[in-house]
Design goal:
Layout (H helix, E strand, L loop, with lengths): L6 H10 L2 E5 L6 H8 L4 E4 L3 H9 L1 H7 L4 E4 L6 H12 L6 E5 L17 E5 L5 H5 L1 E2 L2 H6 L13 H10 L10 H23 L7 H11 L7 H8 L3 H13 L3 E4 L15 E4 L2 H8 L3 H5 L6 H16 L7 E6 L5 E7 L5 E6 L11 H10 L3 E8 L5 E2 L4 E5 L2 H4 L3 E2 L3
Parallel strand pairs: 1-4, 1-5, 2-3, 3-4, 11-12, 12-14
Antiparallel strand pairs: 6-15, 7-8, 9-10, 10-11, 13-14
Helix pairs in contact: 3-4, 4-5, 8-13, 13-15
């Protein structure tokens, strides 16, 4: 069994917090991880119809009847329990008493918004990171802020290997499957998620619109969101479209990457970007294949950029610095694909290039940020599918994409 790098973060929360909520898309391994973290706890799943009926009929009595500690799986099915859990925690603030899992983002759903402020910590489990697949805990995010120059042996992963990683993605069920097997799984997964989970979360008048909407979003992955243009293309009223987008975010299929901006005296884009939770699903929805890309027939750039953005987002979950992740773009087109901002205001900019060759022009956005921010700018990194780590001027570096899981990594071996 692959060790998940969130283990230690969740374990720390269980030691001092009454309620810990582990959320993420279905099939990312939440239930398995919850049981592994607390093997002595009673496991109760609300995917069971009888259990769900008991929980919704008498939420207070149901919660009081549970022993501690308890793992309560798929808690989004019974929003009534949040109020009951709050009342029980106020009676007994035992740390680690409740480990909840959910396949819906409770912060986006008003009916699940019963406040547990000060009583609950939330962790998000994404599909497997590349470090988890390699048996290491990645330390790229903390390392990239360090003042020391990066020292990395040349990458041994050719462009084709990086392409294969991005097209495969990180869902545990697709690891080890061939391209055909992955397509079958992604097809069944997205269909079930849109037809069952979204229906469970809200009453959708036109459920058939969601698959079309998801494919349109996939075609715009890593591009700035234009809700009006998207609505016109698919023929959905703006009010319905915004509701559908919220539901796709709530099920973790679609994420919004928020713009980073500061007063630089420039007009900057303040609309977010679409990012899918997994580059494998993105490749499936846009029909990008490893064979097609390597033969020159396939648009790889958005898939690789989405791949890198999600690897960064995963690593933030266990990073000591835990920076905010955004992107930067001016109205004149100067752009940096990812911006990491520490709590003290220091910045790292990251550009992503699917090609194996680089030129000084590829650093345009990073140079702009460096020159505008001065000492706040810690480092700019261009991640590419080549093999060497190279300096490209003051605080600017080109690095292989696999630096994401090699630089600063620590073995997960017990």
């Amino acid at each position: 069994m692959l060790r998940r790098n969130l283990n230690s973060s969740i374990h720390e929360s269980l030691l001092d917090t009454p309620v810990v909520l582990l959320v993420g898309a279905r099939q990312t391994g939440k239930s398995t991880l919850a049981r592994e973290l607390n093997p002595a706890a009673q496991y109760v799943t609300l995917d069971n119809a009888a259990t769900l009926l008991a929980a919704t009929t008498d939420p207070d009595g149901f919660i009081r009847s549970l022993p501690r500690p308890v793992v309560l799986d798929e808690v989004q099915h019974a929003p009534e329990l949040f109020r009951a859990i709050k009342a029980e925690v106020d009676r007994n603030r035992r740390p680690g008493g409740f480990l909840l899992t959910g396949s819906a983002n409770v912060m986006l759903l008003p009916r699940l918004s019963e406040s547990l402020a000060g009583r609950m910590e939330i962790h998000t489990l994404w599909p497997l990171s590349q470090g988890e697949l390699e048996g290491v805990r990645e330390g790229f995010i903390d390392a990239v802020f360090a003042p020391e120059a990066p020292v990395l042996a040349p990458s041994i992963e050719a462009k084709g290997t990086i392409v294969a990683r991005a097209v495969r993605g990180g869902y545990p069920e697709v690891i080890g499957r061939d391209a055909r097997g992955r397509r079958r799984w992604f097809d069944g997964y997205t269909t079930t998620l849109l037809q069952r989970d979204v229906r469970d979360l809200a009453n959708i008048e036109a459920l058939g619109d969601l698959p079309r909407l998801l494919r349109l979003i996939a075609g715009r992955a890593t591009a700035v969101v234009n809700v009006a243009a998207l609505g016109n293309e698919i023929g959905i009223p703006q009010t319905s479209l915004k509701r559908y987008l919220t539901l796709l975010q709530a099920t973790y299929l679609v994420q919004l990457l928020q713009p980073w901006f500061v007063n630089l005296g420039k007009r900057v884009v303040k609309s977010p970007k679409f990012v899918l939770d997994d580059s494998g699903i993105l490749a499936f929805l846009t029909e990008v294949t490893e064979a097609g890309v390597l033969s020159g027939d396939g648009l790889l750039g958005p898939v690789v950029e989405n791949f890198v953005l999600m690897e960064l987002r995963k690593q933030i979950g266990w990073s000591a610095l835990a920076p905010n992740l955004g992107f930067f773009r001016t109205h004149t087109g100067t752009e940096v694909d990812a911006v990491l901002e520490r709590r003290d205001g220091r910045i790292v900019g990251i550009e992503v290039k699917a090609g194996a060759t680089i030129s000084p022009g590829d650093f345009r956005g990073l140079r702009f940020l460096r020159d505008e921010l001065g000492d706040r700018f810690s480092r700019g990194v261009l991640l590419y599918t080549g093999e060497h780590t190279l300096p490209f001027g003051d605080r600017l570096w080109a690095m292989p994409i696999d630096a994401l899981w090699r630089w600063g990594a620590v073995s997960n071996a017990a």
